[in-house]
Amino acid sequence: MTSPVLEQIQAALATVNDPEIKRPITDLGMVESVDIDDTGKVSVKVLLTVAGCPLKDTITRDVTAAVSKVASVTAVDLELGVMTAEQRSGLKDILSGGQAGQAQREIPFGKPDSLTKVYAIASGKGGVGKSSVTVNLALGLAAQGLKVGVLDADIYGHSIPAMFGIADSQPTQVEDLIMPVPTASGVSVISIGMLKPRRDQVVAWRGPMLDRALVQMLADVYWGDLDALVLDLPPGTGDVAISLGQHLPSAEVIVVTTPQEAAAEVAERAGTMASMMHQRVIGVIENMSYLACPHCLSEGKDHRIDLFGSGGGARVAKTLSERFGYDVPVLGEIPLDISLREGGDAGKPVVEADPTSPAARVLHKIAADLSGRGRGLAGLQLGLTPSSRF
Ligand SMILES: Nc1ncnc2c1ncn2[C@@H]1O[C@H](COP(=O)(O)OP(=O)(O)OP(=O)(O)O)[C@@H](O)[C@H]1O
């Protein structure tokens, strides 16, 4: 039996999103029953996707808050249950959009009508700050109001979860569909490290294994409707970069380098590799660009110490522009900044923990510029050839 109050409660429940799937729990078959007694006490039973769901506290809080707001509700009694195998299979069907049971799901970002911008963060060598840039750029894009996912494909490092403060989190699995782990600010994260049975296990995979892992992270993960997916690639020009090029030629590549000559040369190779895979290199980020002299700052002066030399980013941008015949700009120069390193170590990225610090300001600016380029099909090759000139 429905009553106006029950309808209001249903409407309130429809405002609660599952934190991992980011869709209303009412659309996902998670609300099993709703009742209200004569005193205004509401009894709700919500089914979790798996027993021991890591986000059950969030769901409890959100459901209780939403239902409590309905006028005439005096109390909320929430019971949590767990979906049966059959209910989970139904949920998987909803999430995979009718593709359930297919041996190989499609990569949603590879479809011609995909509106998700895919940014692949590449570098020539390790340790130049590629993962730090990935994490902070993703949060910077989220701060611009975008729905953002991060895929950590750096088999050697997979440091992304720790930098986000979710190192101990494991993704929830609904049948063979994997839910990305949400960060505190709602960025969805999957790391190649999360696919290993044990955290300390060393990944020594060859090309085909890596390719399978990358496809799994792109196709078997329920990413939902993202505005941007930021990928942390392993350094260099190896198997993952080739696989990514094959599966996602529409990915836009950002090359991270330091000001050093030696770093610039290998960074150019990483950029050239992307271009060989028909991906567009949209810019270069120079990290560890300079150190703001602390003594001068205290005197109100801006003096830069070029700890690692200078000009690497500009050199890579110039070389790649000449090589590809289109403009590859320097997107920003991120200074050395203790708060960036501390934020990474503590799992509290600098763009959120210390947004006015010098590095965070540059990263926010890069994110704002990128999001200003807009979502959608702009910049994609549409495969149209003009038939005549006007
Ligand atoms: N601008 C910066 N200022 C201060 N420390 C930085 C800066 N950029 C990066 N770091 C620090 O340098 C170290 C290496 O950075 P990061 O892990 O992001 O590099 P990476 O290129 O992803 O390395 P790898 O490829 O080996 O994973 C980290 O400890 C990070 O905190």
TrEMBL record:
ATP binds at G124, K125, G126, G127, V128, G129, K130, S131. The keyword Iron applies. GO terms for molecular function: 4 iron, 4 sulfur cluster binding; ATP binding; ATP hydrolysis activity; ATP-dependent FeS chaperone activity; metal ion binding. It comes from the Bacteria. InterPro entries: FSCA_dom_sf, MIP18-like, Mrp/NBP35_ATP-bd, NUBPL-like, P-loop_NTPase, YlxH/NBP35. Signal peptide: none annotated. Keywords: ATP-binding, Hydrolase, Iron, Iron-sulfur, Metal-binding, Nucleotide-binding. GO terms for biological process: iron-sulfur cluster assembly. Pfam families: FeS_assembly_P (PF01883), ParA (PF10609). SUPFAM superfamilies: Fe-S cluster assembly (FSCA) domain-like, P-loop containing nucleoside triphosphate hydrolases. Residues 7-77 form the MIP18 family-like domain. The keyword Iron applies. Binds and transfers iron-sulfur (Fe-S) clusters to target apoproteins. Can hydrolyze ATP. Homodimer. In the N-terminal section; belongs to the MIP18 family. PANTHER family: IRON-SULFUR PROTEIN NUBPL. This is Iron-sulfur cluster carrier protein. It comes from Nocardioides marmoriginsengisoli.
